[in-house]
Amino acid sequence: MDRVKVISNRFFLQGLLLFILLLLATMPLYVQPYLVILLSTVFMYIGITVSWAIFSGPTRYISLASAAFFGVGVYVSAILGQALPLPVVIAIGGLVSFILALFIGLLTLRLRGMYFIIFTFGVSELIRHFLLWWEANIMGTVGRWVFPVDHTTVYYVLLVILVMALFTAHLIRRSKFGLALRSIGEYEEAAAHIGINVTTLKTITFAISAFFMGAAGAIMATRWTYIDPSIAFSPLFSFMPVLMAIFGGIGQLYGPILGAAIFALLEEVLITEFPYYYMLLFGIILIAVILFLPSGLVGLIQKWRRGGLEE
Q: How many domains does one find in the chain?
């Protein structure tokens, strides 16, 4: 009986996911353009947050290099956007970010704790300031124009990137690869002693997560039209995925999705209603979540399902 219930629940979940995907795929046909633009932003944040969680979730290594990978994709689009077809530009943006992450991973993934956090954030800032110096002193001008793409195309490309990131995260979580990553997060020394090549595994996973960030950056650049290092490598793209994942809860795959979606919509509302105070309000909300929901929204949902809210 329990087996039948599990199978029926699985079919229900698969049907629900298919319905949601079809709904999102057809939404640009009957909604206002503003909603298409808003959902594109939500897809971007969810994609970056899920990509961040692919590596940082199971390993518990807090990476602040997201801005570096996202910004590299933005600049690839700015440089190659007029010369190559859009799918090729997006693929190159993801590939360059993948290679950069391999290089960073080989340098930094022997570090742990605060050392790793500070180094990854420093890499993002180093790239940002180097490009500012290069453009101001060598190119003679700061910033670049990007070949624009219509909002519907941006919407669909970001949806495809999001689905690919989610599918990859799901496959990793259910594989021996994901089990090894979780063992690294639980006790890295023990994982190494049982034969897991922890450095190689961490580096490859780090690079896989960077691919989707770079691809998202490459398509988002076409919506912004004009970019410069401060836009492409904004520290917000390093910190927001971490905050969104914590807000949603890292324990389950739907946690980062939920956290990123709510935070992205909340950001839009706060910027519109309180443009001068929205970062302060963000901070208050985050502090409240850490104090009262240490496991994020996932923990709250699990507690509710166990009936713990009545206690």
A: 1
3-state secondary structure of 273: helix
Q: In which domain, by residue range, is 204 found?
A: 32-248
What is the token pair recorded at 162? 């999001």
What is the Cα–Cα distance from 96 to 232, expressed in whole angstroms? 15
Q: Are 256 and 176 in contact (CB under 8 A)?
A: no
Q: Is residue 296 part of a domain?
A: no
Establish if 256 belongs to a structural domain. Answer: no
Question: Which two structure tokens, joined as six digits, stand for 203?
Answer: 């580096």
Q: Phi first, then psi: give them for residue 174, nearest 5 degrees.
A: -95, 5
In a domain, 208, yes or no: yes
Inside any domain, residue 254 = no
Identify whether the C-beta of residue 296 lies closer than 8 Å to the C-beta of residue 290: no
| Segment-wise mean pLDDT, segments of 10 residues, the chain, 311 residues | 58 76 85 88 93 90 91 92 90 95 84 83 91 87 84 92 92 87 85 84 92 94 88 88 85 82 82 75 74 72 62 46
Alpha carbons 48 and 3: distance in angstroms, whole number: 36
How far is residue 81's CA from residue 147's CA, in Å, rounded to a whole number?
6
Query: Which residue is listed with tokens 């518990």?
Result: 60
Name the residue with tokens 């034969």: 195
Q: What are phi and psi of 226, to 5 degrees?
A: -115, 135
Question: How far apart are alpha carbons 119 and 113 in whole angstroms?
Answer: 10
